[in-house]
């Protein structure tokens, strides 16, 4: 079985080595780059399964790199986990808005890091319970990992794809943030409910004209409805 390749982009060698050792012992293949230029060379040579990206780097910052990789079609769907010493809420949201799937605040435990990596990799895997779901003119196909609206393809990230799939499978029902964390993220012991809001916002941006189908129900959560397209 192929080991998942994890690209560690971290300029502090002691931290990178500690992460690499723990990943190696837990069935991953770590690759280390100390800045964005080195990381890009690795990505050009071989796409990793996940990127562990430090916020503070020499040259381009982690935020700039995340935005760059999210715009590149080749790296758009690779999960990005931000490593940051910044614990402030606005900084966390900035990381998610830049395209990160999740973040880990230093110092962190090995168990937390592994749990978050496994959770993000699980989210990347397409849902297989129902291959094709149609709600109005919105179609999600898990076999091809594609979303279309009125026949036109939409670019949807891996976490948003799974979130949309769950909402479409349970259309017209209201789901709390806690329920979505449990059903979509699975291992949400380290993930805050605010993360759900950021991914819903990103999902709406991806849906374009179909964004109104994802409704916010004040004080309750979110619902996907066909009624909003009428």
List keywords for this structure.
two-component regulatory system; transcription regulation; 230 residues; transcription; phosphoprotein; globular
Task: Write a structural description.
It is found in: Cytoplasm. Keywords: Activator, Cytoplasm, DNA-binding, Phosphate transport, Phosphoprotein, Transcription, Transcription regulation, Transport, Two-component regulatory system. It comes from Variovorax ginsengisoli. This protein is a positive regulator for the phosphate regulon. Transcription of this operon is positively regulated by PhoB and PhoR when phosphate is limited. Its main location: cytoplasm. A 5-stranded parallel beta sheet has the order 2-1-3-4-5, with helices on both faces. A 4-stranded antiparallel beta sheet has the order 6-7-8-9, with helices on one face. It has 8 helices and 11 strands. Helix 3 links the parallel strand 3 and strand 4. It has 230 residues and is of the alpha/beta class. The model has no long low-confidence stretch (mean pLDDT 86). The relative contact order is 0.11.
Number of strands: 11
Oligomer: single chain
Distance between the termini: 48 Å
Question: Number of helical runs?
Answer: 8
Helix percentage range: 40-55%
Elements, N to C (H/E) = EHEHEHEHEHEEEEHHHEE
Low-pLDDT sequence parts:
none
**Largest sheet, described in full?**
5 strands, parallel
SSE-based structural type: alpha/beta
* Overall mean confidence score, pLDDT: 86
Based on CA atoms alone, the radius of gyration comes out at: 18 Å
State the strand order across the main sheet. 2-1-3-4-5
Shape type: globular
Percent of sequence in beta strands: 15-25%
